[in-house]
Amino acid sequence: MIICKTPREIEIMREAGRIVALTHQELQKYIEPGITTKELDHIAETFIRKHDAIPSFKGYNGFRGSICTSVNEELVHGIPGDRVLREGDIISIDIGAKYNGYHGDSAWTYPVGAISEEAKKLLEVTEQSLYRGLEEAKPGARLTNISHAIQTYVEAHNFSVVREYVGHGIGQDLHEDPQIPHYGPPNKGPRLKPGMVLCIEPMVNAGTRYVRTLEDNWTVVTVDGKLCAHFEHTIAITETGYEILTTL
Questions:
Q1: Residue 163 resides in a domain
Q2: Residue 121: which CATH number?
Q3: Given Cys at both, which of 71, 176, 221, 235 links 169, Cβ 3.0 to 4.6 Å?
Q4: Which residues constitute the domain of residue 178?
């Protein structure tokens, strides 16, 4: 069941999203060669709690970190640890914050120092595919118009869209209906309505679309070992279009 949020609920979620965006902004100061993913996790948790929120991911289904840190061929759900970031890496950081009972959720993929031209293109295309999808987020439109716009843009640039992991509704629960694939034909699925709050999060591989999960039962990696990227915003459907909640 898709839960449409009241204006008051969206106001709370706007603050949750702002805290997520502020945490991303804070972490960018520290993303450089030599730092460990565990150190980034500690910085993020401290910052989130300082803003009267709690990390959404900590303890979620047993997840040990406060954020997800996925490096290079790691797509999503990377567990923070002793891995040291190196010049030329890319790192996806997925942050969730729960404020006053409601969640905000956003992921961004960052360069570590100077990165390759291929990596730059991957990041640019994945980020732009998110915004191409958001252009289709308007009341009355079918959900998969978002999905189709993302897939079309990504594949036009010779990258591939991961199909095993999808976007989702969000609110008092971190994952709510509906599920939002980032591929598929247009004009399918439920019609978007004001008050829907959704996480749109294209996950894009430089090589084939196939992924697998490591033995830690969390970290998802590309099967071919090639780079991948992940960008995500939480949005609210409005009377005229959409509002990004995970922004400053």
A1: yes
A2: 3.90.230.10
A3: 176
A4: 5-242
Is residue 72 assigned to a domain?
yes
Q: Is residue 247 part of a domain?
A: no
Question: pLDDT of 208-239, one tens digit each?
Answer: 999 999 999 999 999 999 999 999 999 999 99
- 52 among annotated binding-site residues: no
Q: Which tens digit of pLDDT belongs to each residue from 105-133?
A: 999 999 999 999 999 999 999 999 999 99
Q: Is 73 assigned a ligand-binding role in the annotation?
A: no
SS3 sequence of the chain: CECCCCHHHHHHHHHHHHHHHHHHHHHHCCCCCCCEHHHHHHHHHHHHHHCCCEECCCCHHHCCCCEEEEECCEEECCCCCCCECCCCCEEEEEEEEEECCEEEEEEEEEECCCCCHHHHHHHHHHHHHHHHHHCCCCCCCECHHHHHHHHHHHHHCCCEECCCCCEEECCCCCCEEEEECCCCCCCCCCECCCCCEEEECCEEECCCCCEEECCCCCCEEECCCCCEEECCEEEEECCCCEEECCCC
**201 annotated among ligand-binding-site residues:** yes
Determine whether the annotation assigns residue 168 to a binding site: yes
Task: Please tell me the total count of domains within the chain.
Answer: 1
**Per the annotation, does 175 bind a ligand?**
yes
232 annotated to a ligand binding site: yes
Is 120 inside a domain boundary?
yes
For 53, phi then psi, to 5°, come to: -125, 170
